[in-house]
């Protein structure tokens, strides 16, 4: 079922004048006057293109927009009755600006042809005027709304500066990805065409993963979130962009937070690692070898995800005694959304906890690794953890075990109230 709402989408038309004109289109369409709706829609589209070009001139001093307006104005003066300038307008905007891509241009030219059929006294074999049906009119209206009317007149070179400045100023209120996504979708992303998307992605990549100046350090986290959200809109498009321009995207920072953020990004977008040049991979591997969080997340440097998990398990139970924060555990869990990976992370957390070498360490490890994951434990996971606890007094002898392990037991009983845990005497001894 098509849940697209023309009325709702019309509220997002960028230019107030175009929005007012479009109300006539909507009125005709709602009344079943599809011929009139199509004729008026073309007029709205032409006006909106002119409004957008003038906006580019007024706001950015855009020379190409100014040139197009001058050329169209001259064509109108030379032949006031010829509609040729309308076709030229669409083609010039598509060729010389970033307002229309190829598909959007063709949709508008198709609308123009439909408009001519509906407006001119062309008759068919039955001597009837051409009458677009409801579905045709709806499709034409939708394409005009999505491809032109609701989009802001923007230049990629200008929008990057506006966006990052906006993010810096709004970082205090855009405190989570949900709010940031809603903000960016409404104000920016919904108005981008693919060419602008790629230009913004390229710029954000440089700000987040390459530059290390003070301003970039300050805004790296929110710029990273914006890049991540933009990438999620069309991963295939951006992977192709990276593959086509490997030298640019392989020019990254050689250390510091920029590289750590890149590893976090690659942990969610593993195929990109294979597209990078060897010198970039060398820098990434150095960070993996020297940063705990990076080592946890860099599954893409291993032969497979299961092999990476096994390497982490051996590391956790070894002599290094690594401290892994809750944020890293959360990022580790989100590497994959498969049930198999979720269970793997649960077992890794258990191995990490039962390898504790001090009471304080066990307190921290339960709080950072086990407690957030407890809702994901099944009964087998609970029992395996209980068995591990019984083998390490640093886990069950500490004061916090009374509270923590009661939570574990409660989880097991929640899953199966008939579960028999009486055989685990060491575990139960300190639960009261």
Summarize the entry for a quick read:
With 432 residues, the protein is mainly alpha-helical. It has helices at 6-10, 16-30, 34-60, 63-78, 84-96, 102-119, 134-149, 156-170, 177-187, 194-209, 214-233, 235-244, 246-250, 256-268, 278-290, 292-297, 305-316, 326-333, 339-354, 359-370, 379-390, 393-396, 401-415, 425-429.
Protein architecture, described:
This protein has 432 residues and is mostly helical. It has three domains: 6-149, Up-down Bundle (Four Helix Bundle (Hemerythrin (Met), subunit A)); 154-300; 302-432. It has 24 helices and no strands. The chain is elongated.
Key terms:
432 residues, mainly alpha, Four Helix Bundle (Hemerythrin (Met), subunit A), 3 domains, 0% strand, elongated
SS field, number of helical segments: 24
Quaternary assembly: single chain
Rg for CA atoms: 30 Å
Q: Averaged pLDDT, please?
A: 93
Helix and strand arrangement:
Elements: H1 6-10, H2 16-30, H3 34-60, H4 63-78, H5 84-96, H6 102-119, H7 134-149, H8 156-170, H9 177-187, H10 194-209, H11 214-233, H12 235-244, H13 246-250, H14 256-268, H15 278-290, H16 292-297, H17 305-316, H18 326-333, H19 339-354, H20 359-370, H21 379-390, H22 393-396, H23 401-415, H24 425-429
Helix pairs in contact: 2-3, 3-4, 3-5, 3-6, 3-7, 4-5, 5-6, 6-7, 8-10, 10-11, 11-14, 14-15, 17-19, 19-20, 19-21, 21-23
């Amino acid at each position: 079922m098509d849940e697209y709402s023309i009325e709702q989408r019309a509220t997002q038309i960028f230019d107030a004048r175009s929005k007012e004109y479009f109300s006539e289109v909507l009125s005709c369409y709602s009344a079943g006057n599809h011929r009139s709706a199509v004729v008026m829609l073309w007029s709205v589209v032409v006006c909106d293109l002119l409004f957008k070009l003038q906006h580019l001139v007024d706001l950015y001093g855009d020379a190409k927009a100014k040139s197009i307006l001058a050329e169209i104005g001259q064509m109108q003066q030379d032949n006031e009755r010829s509609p040729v300038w309308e076709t030229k307008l669409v083609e010039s905007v598509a060729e010389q600006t970033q307002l229309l891509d190829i598909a959007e241009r063709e949709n508008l030219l198709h609308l123009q042809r439909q408009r001519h059929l509906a407006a001119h006294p062309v008759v068919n074999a039955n001597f009837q005027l051409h009458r677009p049906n409801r579905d045709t009119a709806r499709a034409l209206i939708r394409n005009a709304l999505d491809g032109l009317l609701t989009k802001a007149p923007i230049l990629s070179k200008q929008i990057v500066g506006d966006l990052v400045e906006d993010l810096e100023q709004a970082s205090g209120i855009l405190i989570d990805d949900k709010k940031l996504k809603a903000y960016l979708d409404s104000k920016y992303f919904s108005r981008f065409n693919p060419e602008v998307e790629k230009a913004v992605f390229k710029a954000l990549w440089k700000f987040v993963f390459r530059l290390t100046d003070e301003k970039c350090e300050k805004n790296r986290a929110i710029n990273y979130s914006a890049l991540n959200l933009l990438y999620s809109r069309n991963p295939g498009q951006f992977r192709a962009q990276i593959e086509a321009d490997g030298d640019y995207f392989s020019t990254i920072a050689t250390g510091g937070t920029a590289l750590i953020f890149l590893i976090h990004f690659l942990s969610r977008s593993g195929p990109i690692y294979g597209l990078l040049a060897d010198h970039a991979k060398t820098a990434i591997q150095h960070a993996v070898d020297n940063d705990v969080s990076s080592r946890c997340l860099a599954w893409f440097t291993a032969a497979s995800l299961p092999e990476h998990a096994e390497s982490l398990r051996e590391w956790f139970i070894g002599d290094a005694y690594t401290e892994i924060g809750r944020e890293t555990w959360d990022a580790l869990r989100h590497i994959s959304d498969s049930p198999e990976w979720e269970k793997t992370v649960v077992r890794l957390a258990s191995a990490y906890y039962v390898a504790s070498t001090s009471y304080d360490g066990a307190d921290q490890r339960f709080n950072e690794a086990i407690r957030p994951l407890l809702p994901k434990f099944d009964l087998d996971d609970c029992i395996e953890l209980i068995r591990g606890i019984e083998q390490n007094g640093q886990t069950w002898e500490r004061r916090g075990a009374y509270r923590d392990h009661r939570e574990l037991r409660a989880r097991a009983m929640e899953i199966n109230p008939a579960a028999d845990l009486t055989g685990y005497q060491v575990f139960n001894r300190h639960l009261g």
